[in-house]
UniProtKB/TrEMBL annotation, chain A:
Assigned EC number: 1.2.5.3
Record-linked InterPro entries: Ald_Oxase/Xan_DH_a/b, Ald_Oxase/Xan_DH_a/b_sf, Ald_Oxase/xanthine_DH-like, AldOxase/xan_DH_MoCoBD1, AldOxase/xan_DH_MoCoBD2, AldOxase/xan_DH_Mopterin-bd_sf
Record-linked SUPFAM superfamilies: CO dehydrogenase molybdoprotein N-domain-like, Molybdenum cofactor-binding domain
Protein's UniProt name: Carbon monoxide dehydrogenase large chain
Entry keyword Oxidoreductase: yes
Keywords from the named record: Molybdenum, Oxidoreductase
TrEMBL record, chain B:
Residue ranges of every copy of the 2Fe-2S ferredoxin-type domain listed in the record: 2-78
Domain of life according to the entry: Bacteria
Keyword list, A-Z: 2Fe-2S, Iron, Iron-sulfur, Metal-binding, Oxidoreductase
Enzyme type, top EC level: oxidoreductase
Entry protein name: Carbon monoxide dehydrogenase small chain
Organism: Pseudoprimorskyibacter insulae
Amino acid sequence: MPKDHGIGASQKRREDVRFLTGAGQYTDDINVHGQAYVYFLRSDVAHGKINSIDTAAASAMPGVVRIFTGADFEGVGGLPCGWQVTDKHGEAMKEPAHPVLAQGKVRHVGDPIAAVVADSLEQARNAAEAIDVDIEELPAVVDMKAALNAGATKVHDDLSDNLCYDWQFGTDTETVDAAFAAAAHVTKLELRNNRLVANPMEPRVALGEYNRAKDESTLYTTSQNPHVIRLLMGAFVLGIPEHKLRVVAPDVGGGFGTKIFHYAEEAFCTFASRKINRAVKWTSSRSEAFMSDAHGRDHVSTIELALDADNNFTALRTDTYANMGAYLSTFASCTPTWLHGTLMAGNYKTPAVQVNVKAVFTNTVPVDAYRGAGRPEATFQLERVIDKAARELGVDPIKLRRQNFITSFPYATPVAVEYDTGDYNATMDKMEELMDIPGFAARRAASEAKGKLRGLGINCFIEACGIAPSNLVGQLGARAGLYDAATVRVNATGSISVMVGAHSHGQGHETVFPQVVAEMLGIDESMIDIVHGDSSKIPFGMGTYGSRSLAVCGSAMVRATEKIINKAKKIAAHLMEASEADIELKDGQFSVAGTDKSVAWGDVTLAAYVPHNYPLEDIEPGLEETAFYDPANFTYPAGAYACEVEVDPDTGKVTIEKFVSADDFGNVVNPMIVEGQVHGGIAQGIGQALLENCAYDENGQLLSASYMDYAMPRASDLPHMANYTVDHSCQTPCTHNPLGVKGCGEAGAIGSPPTVVNAVLDALNSAGHKVAHIDMPVSPSRVWEAMNS
Amino acid sequence: MANVSMTVNGKTVSGEVKGNTLLVDFLRQNLHLTGTHVGCDTSQCGACNVSLNGDVVKSCTMFAAEADGADLTTIEGMANEDGSLGVIQAAFQEYHGLQCGFCTPGMVMAAQDLLKKNPKPTEAEVRHHLEGNICRCTGYHNIVKAIMAASGQDVGAIAAE
């Protein structure tokens, strides 16, 4: 009988009621009396020198309040990068200025040139058309390798070139070279991890409000981490101290990483509202989102795998070019380095691993973390090259992986991280069972009878989640701590408000977090509410990304709840005139061990707030505790995925016929929600593999700036339910956080792209087409070309 | 400016609108019915779906003036009279057919349109019908389940086939 209560129960989500009835409150649903609207005039060229901006005519148009340009932001800070990467020569990365509005030059299509604030959005838009901007178009650099050629056009004139950093990590070159020289077989693969756009369905919105009498600013924004925005914008951009700046992220319609970052529009609305003493609102259109939301991925890599005569992996070397775009977004620098290089060992005991990354500025939208952030790029390279090696060697790809699995834990990889626990054979076993691998031959024959090719792709992955131990990431260049915080406020009648630093934008924290507290206290979840998303209501918090909410913030909540229990036991002991050491808490009752004496949860909470009979000399009244939790290590979810595709040889179209994921997330608090997270991640991964591509032309024009051009996965692109299983029954609990949880938000997006591509290549090669690789998206035209070239 | 009048969720409403005021802006800004969302600007995502005279339409792609005299239902009108969730809404909750909730109103409106016209759709028919609705969170799996369950079909049995 499945649990219906506490940890492990698939409780239905309480937040659903408001979303299903139109009663959610997203940022665009918030309006402030007297608000003005801003429209950003954005660059339509990828690179250009701004000779002049004439706003005279536009300023005289109806409803215009004020027009801002880069000149208004002189002396104001630029948008900061939160992570300093040190290159292989010991030099700090190049860190160009990132002004709120363009100053002197525009560096990508969409770079904001001017901001028109007017009484209505329509008036702002109309006036923007009347701004006379003289831009001298300059040659644009789009291709990363070309951007590094001597004499290439520079994105930033004050930098020596377009190289942000040249990073090397892992095993030393001499050792790696020796391993390759001694190898019985070397497999090499060049590949591209396609540029993507995260595309949460809610476009970004910012509403800045200023209270002049109190000198207080409030920013309502579509953010995954309101405190991080308060810190970055307050301290680095606008110089507003924390106690005068409130940041609210209400219901947020999806994030996937792209709503982590601090954006120009947030700073602008806050800044402008102070200047005009009136609230200023910006609502992104979807087209605007494509050219102003940070993009994801966009790596070009060469990976080489060395094997000995027994097919043991002996060394791995990768060289990656990582696109930064025109400016460094908030966490852009750490995605291709510390979130990518550290995972390059994967699930395997390869003794020598070296990762090289050149980060490159181009005249494109900034690139930053997108669901998985660095880990999908690492997994894609590794699992594609292993699959290629298996084909070259004529060995079973499952057997080759199993032979090289790490099987003993803890395991310190050559790329700095220590996996605390895992069982990669268990997830592989589960995948094989659910996939019915022995039945594949018959399914292939059935596909062939219909004139289709059928392929089976498999893939393993590991990720580092629960970001992150502050002292470690500090050494690696992080400019912030990555702990989280929770306050458990027990009210007089026993109901509880838990203020958490994590932010829910689809993950269901409002349902899941109370399950944990309810389990610990033995009370019903309905007595517990979660408060999040408002810097004035919660103590602090680093927000939600990197599958960290439950592992880090949930652990803070556990620690705070433990403090509550300790204090409540003292109160209970007093009420029952017993020793504190004898007090037990079970099912919401405090009892004295070995007696029939007990007091209820509500009696104790009431005593805390009405302390007439209370040990005031020993403890304070009230029942509220805060805990900050800084993780001791990352968590390491891992899994084995498999996919079967059909390929139409006439058109090259690929369809997903069967898909299985076997994940190890450690302990699971709400299985229904975990499975939903995996479904979503897999859909985004299948989207990357088959459909999605953010394309620029050679002049830096963004070709895919709407849903007419950027292929989002639709319901009919994904496998039918009878052929689709997501499993999380293999559980090796995390050893260092109190819940034993690892995080599940990104797994699907990391595990699925190589699975799909491996399946397509299996289909083609098994049918006699010698195709080593096809870059994503594996579109019909690319497949057809590969088959017919 | 023109005066428009229509029935929205059973109530007669009217307002002054400009000729170029979109129906979705009239709903969100004039009527404060903010459950209807705008997720794109090319009529692709379906977050703005409403029911107009019994057919689902994208309210970002018609003018408010075009809806003059029409009978509209928005997501705010989909619950039962006592405030409890309607059959489709309840199925979305039961089968976890939503995460961030932003596309959800449009999905519910699309689902009621489908089930009215095709009370027992196949899985392929459900997926095809959702062609005009984009969800980025759920991978559609549980949305499809929810819609089939709302039609009275045994999704557990279908998934086990």
